[in-house]
Design a protein that fits this description.
Layout: H1 2-14, H2 21-24, E1 38-42, H3 49-64, E2 67-71, H4 84-89, E3 101-105, H5 108-120, E4 125-131, H6 139-146, E5 150-153, H7 156-159, E6 165-168, H8 184-191, E7 197-202, H9 211-221, E8 228-233, H10 241-253, E9 260-264, H11 271-277, E10 280-283, H12 293-299, E11 304-307, H13 312-315, E12 322-325, H14 330-342, H15 344-361, H16 364-380, H17 389-409
Parallel strand pairs: 1-2, 1-3, 3-4, 4-5, 5-6, 7-8, 7-10, 8-9, 10-11, 11-12
Length: 410
């Protein structure tokens, strides 16, 4: 029992209370509008990979559900986000058409606030968590995930590391936004980058993303292919500036500074045109939870070389859309890239297969359908969650700590 109480206290410390908590007492104000049926959260100021998947889904979900969006704004979402405290306030009662309000969360603090509203404030909420991680979570996330009403895993691998999995629903790509170029050579020319063709890797510049492995591969590949330019597309955080400098020196020593380019972070709207202009996308991270960029390239008709991490193996499982290499294997990465660049028939076949795979197996429509089925199963479950024996005393202890926190902060 003490373990449960301690986890809640730890959660409250880690998930800082909104400023409204510090001046508004222990209960949220009564909502004045019709409550939503679905609340989706994005409690991260940075635009991360998780943010990108939320952004893509919400563009469609905000038209399909009576939805409330809470957290940081997203570029493709029209709904104006509200604070997490407003989201909690609007969860006090369910809409007439539903027994519960669903909270779809994807991060630790998002799980915490959903649990807080459901178990401590005892609001009519059911929680859905999407998990993409393919490694064992630490104790704090495991505790939070164990309290979710339903967990959606994004791959069979991810499903092995979390409890309460009700469905495996892969992230999907918007195949109307990412489409093949009619003329790849002309499309590359229109990007403004040098050369007659391009290869790229997309992701933050850091060892985990395999940026160094891509650079080393390009240093071996490009000398025999004078018309090809390699792009490293992604932001370099301050802590990895020195890592980037090492790579730049390595490139300069190879005499390829004008052909292996750090393009930096590009506008989201420009990405489809660049991906469709590439001859090949190389994504060889050492670890990835899921990884959307290969799917976006595939939808753009661009074959891929990917490392065996995240959900990448499922993208190329049919052997039609790209090549899979072991994590961290420079030799096999070089061989795979060379094979696709040297064999035009293989490259063209995989370009077509990549588009077909994205459309048939990994479209955003399929993802929306899979998530929607989970939502409906929770809404149709009329059994309202009652007192959870392990949480009765935990709630009392948590509220005591909560009031102490408010009093001290005030």
């Amino acid at each position: 029992m003490e373990v449960v109480s301690s986890c809640y206290r730890l959660a409250f410390v880690r998930c800082k209370a909104p400023t409204q908590l510090l001046s508004g007492g222990s209960k949220p104000p009564m909502p004045t509008e019709t409550p939503p049926e679905l609340i989706v959260t994005n409690l991260n100021r940075n635009f991360t990979g998780v943010s990108a998947t939320i952004d893509q889904l919400l563009r469609f979900q905000e038209h399909n559900y009576d939805l409330l969006f809470s957290g940081s704004p997203l570029p493709a979402v029209r709904s104006k986000p509200v604070s997490i405290w407003n989201a909690i306030a609007k969860s006090r009662r369910a809409p007439r058409s539903r027994q519960h309000i669903l909270w779809h969360v994807r991060r630790n603090c998002e799980m915490f606030w959903a649990i807080f509203a459901r178990d401590v404030l005892r609001f009519p909420i059911k929680t859905v968590f999407t998990s993409a991680a393919i490694r064992r979570h630490s104790a704090f996330p495991r505790f939070l995930i164990s309290k979710m009403d339903a967990v959606i895993a994004t791959s069979p691998k991810a499903a092995k590391f979390v409890p309460n999995v009700v469905a495996v629903v892969p992230h999907g790509v918007d195949t109307t936004r990412f489409q093949p170029a009619e003329n790849r050579s002309l499309a590359w020319q229109n990007t403004g980058y040098p050369g007659t063709s391009g290869i790229a890797t997309v992701g933050r510049v850091r060892p985990e993303k395999g940026t160094d492995l891509f650079v080393d591969t390009m240093i071996r590949v490009l000398p025999n292919r004078p018309g090809t330019t390699a792009l490293i597309i992604g932001k370099t955080d301050a802590k990895f500036v020195r890592f980037k400098a090492v790579l730049e020196r390595r490139i300069a020593e190879a005499g390829l500074s004008d052909r292996i380019l750090f393009a930096g972070e590009i506008e989201k709207a420009a990405l489809p045109d660049i991906l469709s202009a590439l001859s090949l996308l190389v994504a060889v991270p050492r670890y990835e939870g899921y990884g959307m960029t290969p799917l976006e390239a595939m939808a753009s008709g661009t074959p891929v070389v990917v490392s065996d991490t995240g959900a990448f193996s499922t993208f190329v499982a049919n052997g039609k859309s790209g090549l899979l290499v072991p994590v961290g294997d420079l030799g096999q990465t070089y061989d795979a890239v060379s094979n696709l660049l040297d064999d035009s028939l293989l490259a063209e076949s995989m370009a077509q297969g990549a588009r077909e795979t994205a459309e048939s197996e990994f479209s955003v429509d399929r993802e929306l359908q899979g998530i929607g089925q989970v939502y409906q199963s929770l809404w149709q479950d009329k059994a309202i969650v009652g007192e959870r024996p392990l949480l009765v005393r935990a709630r009392q202890g948590f509220l005591k700590q909560y009031h102490k926190y408010i009093k001290k902060a005030a």
